[in-house]
């Protein structure tokens, strides 16, 4: 579980990132979750944007993605979700 200080640190790191995944009309698929897990292993911190045509609200999508990918939900801002998961092999981010 992340502390408030760690979440603030990760939010500042994520500010400059572009979303690398989009959740749209299809919702959350197994394939999407697998790609997110792989991306988290490589980068540790990612942004995901939720498109206007997504059937679920952003909080539901954020909860589902973070639980299925076993990642920490850092932030939901607008239609963008920020996820963090410590990498096993490529650890880059050192939390305060």
Automatic annotation (TrEMBL):
Q: What keywords were assigned to this record?
A: RNA-binding
Xref: SMART domains:
CRS1_YhbY
Q: Which domain of life is it from?
A: Bacteria
Which SUPFAM superfamilies does this chain map to? YhbY-like (SSF75471)
Please give the Gene3D superfamilies that the UniProt record associates with this protein.
Answer: YhbY-like
In terms of Pfam families, this protein maps to: CRS1_YhbY (PF01985)
Annotated ranges, domain CRM: 1-96
InterPro entries per UniProt: RNA-binding_CRM (IPR001890), RNA-binding_domain (IPR051925), RNA-binding_YhbY (IPR017924), YhbY-like_sf (IPR035920)
Asked if the Swiss-Prot or TrEMBL record annotates the protein with the keyword RNA-binding, the reply is: yes
PANTHER family (alphabetical): RNA-BINDING PROTEIN YHBY
Q: What is this protein called?
A: Ribosome assembly RNA-binding protein YhbY
């Amino acid at each position: 579980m992340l502390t408030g200080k760690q979440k603030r640190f990760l939010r500042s790191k994520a500010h400059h990132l572009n979303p690398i995944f989009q959740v749209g009309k299809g919702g959350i698929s197994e394939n999407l979750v697998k790609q997110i897990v792989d991306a988290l292993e490589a980068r540790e911190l990612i942004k995901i944007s939720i498109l206007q045509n997504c059937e679920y609200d952003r909080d539901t999508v954020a909860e589902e993605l973070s639980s299925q990918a076993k990642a920490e939900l850092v932030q939901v801002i607008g239609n963008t979700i920020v996820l963090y998961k410590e990498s096993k092999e490529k650890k880059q981010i050192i939390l305060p």
